[in-house]
Amino acid sequence: MERENFIQDRLLKEFDVQLNHSGISGERIAQRINELATIGRTEDDGSNRVGYSEEEVQAQNRVAGWMRDAGLQVRRDGAGNLIGRWEGKDPTLPAIMSGSHVDSVPNGGHFDGTLGVLAALEVAEAWKHTNYQPIRSYEVVVFADEEGSRFNGGLNGSEGMIGNQNLEEKKKLTDKEGYCFEEVLNQNHLSISSYQSAKRDMNEVEMFVEVHIEQGKRLEKQGIPCGIVTGIAGPCWLEVTFIGDAGHAGNTPMDDRKDALVAASKFIYEVNQLPRQINDSAVATVGKQFVEPNGVNVIPGKVTLYVDIRDIYQDTRDALVNQVLDLAEEISKSFHITYHYLEKTRFKPIPIQEEKQQLLAECMEEVGVKPYRLPSGAGHDAMIIGRHVPIAMIFVQSKDGISHNPLEWSKLNDCVQSVHVLKRFIEKVQ
Predict the structure, then answer these.
(1) Prior bond to 293 cis, omega within 30?
(2) Which of 263, 245, 253 lies closest to 299 in space, CA to CA?
(3) Where's the Peptidase M20 dimerisation domain (predicted)?
(4) At what angle are helices 26-37 and 114-130 packed, to 10 degrees?
(5) Average pLDDT taken over every residue of the chain
(6) Which of 346, 368, 396 is the C-terminal boundary of a domain?
(7) Which of 55, 138, 197, 295 could crosslink 40 through cysteines, CB 3.0-4.6 Å?
């Protein structure tokens, strides 16, 4: 961990300096990614800045200093979100907002969230250097606690901004140290009252734009630096339990068994096939299961598993949920066992308006990038803000699709091109 510029040097090694124009500086972006990477740096050269931690606040403070240097008016709201405002020619108009987050998962990467914050800030830096003033005011936002590593449930900053309706549930949250949500807020000079006060009149915001690494391989396979997000998938989580009969593995004939694990195995395989019957953006995953009694010589009598179902369209996502439940019933009957399920969560998908996608496509063509559309399977702050205002998202190519890992990487050329697209887009939506 001796190298202070361990990220910056690697980013600049293959950087094309011809991308430095219109006030945008790749060197500045690389330096800032590197500076933030040193905050909460782990032994594996990863990042450890969990939500509402000292490290997250330190990273926010660093960004706040850059905001002030760029000429932005800086404030924090009662949910811990950092906001820098560039006043427009007509400050009475709703503002354009862009940004992301600087918290991370434990031992995560250096681009997830951070790139979106620095891309949004770089637009303001470019305007400062070119003496440009937009018609609408422009706000760079750093949302608090997006990842959710502290409470196993994130997006707390963006939910605070829109006015979350489940505050009583948040009060029940505790971190691994045993501190509840309210105590953690207090440690950050915040409170339940301040969190409630963070609710903003979203009529003050015209739209929100977020730059984020893809966390997948589609752009890499296409050889494209950045892409247009068509929508953010809304997850539905189902807890499905198959109940058969536990029995002795040696004394129970094969034709006289009610094996819950065999039924669950068929279910898992069939669930994997269902999304293809819906559309290209639907997905379904069984990533967790428990087998009981879980003995080497015991026929499994009970299996509980969890199905994560997502799509960017609500009607097809819900249709897939129904197909999964129909499949569970069909399999339980064919194996002469029973089943039951619980719906653990269901979030509304956020499709992105076609006109916003088309405008992004025009901006990409203008900077020499082939427009490419792709869905977002992961949740983002844009998903929360998008419940109230129009959104747009730009994905940046991720090496090998790796994310939430010290190996997470995006080339500086790709990052800078995404900033050029973002800048043009924001200037066009005035």
Answers:
(1) yes
(2) 245
(3) 232-333
(4) 140
(5) 95
(6) 346
(7) 55
Burial annotation 56-87 (CB, 10 A radius, 16+ → b, else e) = bbebbebbbebbeebebebebbbbbbbbbbbe
* CATH code, 139: 3.40.630.10
CB-based contact 285:233 (threshold 8 Å) = no
Structure tokens belonging to residue 157: 């900053």
**1 pLDDT tier (thresholds 50, 70, 90):** very low
Q: Cite the DSSP H helix spans in 238-376.
A: 260-273, 314-334, 354-366
For 379, the token pair is 């949740």
Statement to judge: residues 225 and 86 lie in one domain: yes
SS3 content of the chain, % helix, strand, coil (to 5): 40, 25, 40
Q: Which among 130, 129, 118 has a CA at the least distance from the CA of 422?
A: 118
As for how many domains the chain has, the answer is 2
Residue 420 pLDDT > 60: yes
Q: Looking at the structure, do residues 382 and 259 belong to the same domain, yes or no?
A: no
- On the question of pLDDT at 2 being above 60, the answer is no
Mark whether 291 and 192 lie in a shared domain. Answer: no
Domain boundary among 316, 346, 376: 346
The answer to whether residue 2 sits within a structural domain is no
Which helix (DSSP H) or strand (DSSP E) does residue 125 occupy? Answer: helix 114-130
Residue 132 per-residue DSSP state: -
The CATH number covering residue 309 comes to: 3.30.70.360
CB contact at 8 A, 101 and 157? yes
pTM of the model: 0.88
Local structure of 119: helix, strand or coil: helix
